[in-house]
Structures are given as C-alpha cells and as structure tokens.
Write a structure and sequence with these properties.
The chain is α+β, with helices and mostly antiparallel strands. The protein has helices spanning 10-61, 148-157, 200-207, 267-291, 310-322, 348-357, 361-366, 376-389, 395-457; strands spanning 70-74, 80-84, 91-99, 105-109, 114-115, 121-125, 130-134, 145-146, 164-171, 174-181, 191-193, 212-216, 221-225, 232-236, 240-241, 247-251, 259-265, 336-338, 344-346. 44% of the residues lie in helices and 20% in strands.
C-alpha cells in the first residue's frame, strides 16, 4: 500500500518555525525600539517648541522692548511721522517747520574722456571727510580710456565712499557727471578736487566754473519748538529729530502754521503686544500637552510621543507656576489670567484700566529676557528654559544622549536577533529538507513493493 506523505515546503516551514522561535524576543525589542524612536522624535519636537518660544519671548521682551506702547502723531499727518517708546511722556507739543534738510547735488559737464595712462587721483570731499579715486584703476574695460561713465562707476564702487553717489545724466546729447551727497545738511556738501588729476584736459574741465553747476544746495533743517521766531529754534543736518525723550520725529514738508504732536498711550498696540505674549506661551503649552497626552486606545487615540514622561509634566507645570504669581504685582492685576489647565487669556478692558493707573507696572512684572541681568517673569522663564535647551548642559542634550545610546544598543540587539533567526532557520531548513528526502524515499520504496506484490498475484 502506498504511503501518502504530507506535502510541505521546507523553506516556508523553516521560516515559520524560526519566526515563532524569536517572536517573543522580537516583540519586546520592537516595542522598545518604537518607544525609543518616539522619544527621540518627541525630544526633537520639544527642542523645537522651546526654542521657538524663547525666540518669541526674546522678540517681545528683549532689550528696548516693552509691552506698554505709546503713539505719537501730528495733527497734520502730511507734515511727517512720529513714533514713541514707553519712556515718552504723554502730552502735546507744537512745532513749526521752517526748512527741511536737503542733500547737495552738483553736475559737471563737458568732461572729456581721459587717457588712463595719465593717471592721477580724483578726490571727493565734504567738510569733514574725503576719499580718492585712482584714475588709471577707473579704466574698467582696459581700453586705456577713462570715460565719464567709468568715473561715476569708480566713485560708486569705492570701498571708503560714505559721502556721495554718482550718476551720468545726458542732456542734449551731452553727458554730465552728477554727484549727490549721501547725507543731508550743509556739512555734508560734496565737491570734486581735481588737483591731483594727471590729464590736463580733464583737470581743466573739472575746475572750469562754467562746467560746474549746483543743482541742489545742501541745507540744514530748521524747526521751531513752538511758534516761529518766538519758540525754541532747532537746526540740524537731518530731518529726523529726537528732541523729546522717547519720541522720534521725521519731517517731510515745511509748514505755514505750527502743527501739534500728541503723545499718548496706545491701548490697541499694548493689547496686541500682550496678546502676542499670551499666544506664544499658549502655543508652547499646547505643544507640551500634545507630547504628554496619555491617549485612549479604546477610542483609537494615540498617546503623545513623550506620554508618561514625568519630567515633561514637571516642565509644563513649572512654566504655569512662574506665570501664576500672586500678590499686588501679578499678571492677573492686568487682566492676564490662567484657567485651571494653565491656558492664558487677556481681558483687554481690565488691562487698559490697570495701565491707565500704573503704566509702567506691566513691563516691570514681565521684565526682560535679554542682557546680563534678565528681570521679571521673562527672565525667570528664559532662565528655566535654558536648563532644558542649553547646548552643553541642558536636559534635552542629556536625554538625547541617553536615547541615542539606547538606540545603538537596540540596533545591536536587532543584529543579534537576526543572527538567531538565521541560525534557527538554517537548522529547521536542514531538518525538514532531510525529512522531506526521507519521506520521498519511503514513498518510493512503498510504490516499489506495491508493484512487486501486484506482479506476484498475476
């Protein structure tokens, strides 16, 4: 009777048994690897979130930054613009603009092209400074001829040029070299000194009075604090004035009657500054909440990348406690409060009312995160965050190092497990290949006996 041998593939059977042999160890290793990868990603996200918050904090509370904003505006906005810092005193000021500061502009006509080989220097001067142009070096196309256009390019390209810009203007087919002072005011008027120019024709053209024309004379600004002639006269080289503490004014036209500058609290800008401060913190808190969220397997909600990490919970809670001081000087007194979960919100009405009573109070509470001695809440927040973000000693660095070490160890274990799988696979493959061969031989012998006995009966 023929033997019916089971049919199977030694390779797939060996693979299945090898998988089963290491399945327990693989599940543990995979779980640890997934957790390490999640932690690594969580730390990257944490570093990014903390750094973003520190940047936002710096931009809002850095040097010369304030929450409290003031505005400054002219009664006639066409006269100019003005800005005010928190240090400016509220009030009204009268100004009469007699003159605006202007830049000097001079044209030089009938200038011939000059042989580069003639050499020499062309000097650009103002009352307080000067710089030289090398005539030979101005020959940009190396054709041994220096044109008016090349002279202009050489002036503009001079590394030491802080005095004037040069251009070429063509009138009636004749090129003119136009020299314009970069700064306004009488002291910044510019001229060309041709005494060192090597080419006689060019030197003569530059010094001939008929060739030199003042297109625009340099002029200082003259502004009166108060009425013209009876107020205080202020003269300077620029149209931007800083004569009132904390106020910057730039005039753009003269006046026929005085204009009023009003400096006052800007509640809208202040509220926007405070809201930005609150939004930056809430964004960080939301990111931290997401990282440590426990998840809900029953509802298919995945846990956060740093779920169960007590250190991150402590980080979040510490930030909340810093922003929740109690007493006479606290954010709550200015309408900035935290709910039970620690999320901040702003009561604009309460904020405006508190600032009207104590304008400098909010900035004193929030302080600054910049400088050698940070102050207030911003200083405390930044100092605490640096214990996490410091590139040399921060907790994120030490945690990353620990995770990296764990991942290297897990990679090594994975290699070892792969070797165990290969060993088991090869052992099972050999056994089942031999078994298959034995069964095949037995089946062949059985068929032979069946055939033999069948012949005897015949």
């Amino acid at each position: 009777m023929a033997i019916n041998s089971p049919t199977y593939d030694p390779a797939s059977t060996a693979a299945a048994l090898a998988d089963k042999y290491i399945s327990g160890a693989r599940q543990v290793l995979d779980a640890r690897t997934d957790r390490a990868d999640a932690t690594s990603k969580g730390l990257r996200d944490l570093s990014s979130a903390l750094s973003a918050y520190q940047s936002a904090l710096s931009s809002l509370t850095g040097l010369n930054k304030t929450m409290f904003a003031q505005s400054a505006a002219f009664s006639d906005t066409s006269v100019g613009t003005a800005t005010a810092t928190a240090a400016a005193a509220a009030g009204s000021y009268s100004f009469f603009v007699e003159k605006l500061a202007t830049a000097n502009q001079v044209s030089y006509s009938n200038l011939p092209s000059s042989p580069a080989a003639a050499g020499g220097k062309l000097v650009v001067r103002s009352s307080s400074a000067s710089f030289e142009i090398d005539i030979t070096g101005a020959d940009a196309d190396h054709d041994n001829t220096v044109t008016v256009r090349e002279l202009a390019a050489a002036i503009n390209g001079a590394s030491s040029n802080s005095l004037a810009s040069a251009s070429v203007v063509t009138v009636g087919g004749v090129q003119q070299l136009m020299l314009t002072s970069k700064n306004t005011g009488v002291a910044n008027a510019v001229t060309l000194d041709a005494s060192l120019v090597g080419d006689a024709a060019l030197k003569t053209a530059l010094t001939t009075p008929a060739n030199v024309k003042t297109v625009s004379a340099a002029q200082d600004a003259v502004v009166w604090l108060g009425a013209q002639t009876t107020g205080t006269r202020i003269e300077q080289a620029t149209n931007t004035f800083n004569v009132i503490d904390g106020v910057k004014m730039t005039f753009t036209k003269t006046t026929t009657t005085p204009v009023t500058l009003t400096v006052a609290a800007d509640s809208g800008a202040t509220t926007a500054n405070v809201q930005s401060f609150v939004d930056a913190y809430n964004k960080l808190k939301t990111a931290l909440d997401t990282m440590i969220a426990p998840g809900d397997a029953a509802k298919g909600v995945a846990a956060g990348s740093l779920s169960g990490d007590s250190g991150i919970v402590a980080l979040r809670d510490r930030l909340i406690s810093i922003l929740r001081p109690v007493g006479a000087d606290s954010l709550a007194n200015y309408g900035i409060t935290a709910n039970r979960q620690g999320t901040l919100s702003v009561d604009a009405t309460r904020l405006t009312k508190a600032l009207a009573t104590k304008p400098a109070g909010l900035d004193a509470i929030i302080g600054t995160s910049a400088g050698s001695t940070p102050t207030g809440l911003a200083g405390k927040l930044d100092a605490y965050l640096k214990t996490w973000t410091n590139a040399s000693t921060g907790q994120i660095k030490s945690r990353r190092e620990a995770v990296d070490k764990t991942q290297v160890e897990l990679t090594s274990r994975q290699s070892l497990l792969d070797k165990q799988y290969d060993t088991a696979y090869q052992r099972y493959l050999l056994q089942f290949t031999q078994l298959q061969a034995m069964q095949s031989q037995m089946s062949s012998n059985s068929s032979m006996f069946d055939a033999l006995f069948a012949s005897d009966k015949d």
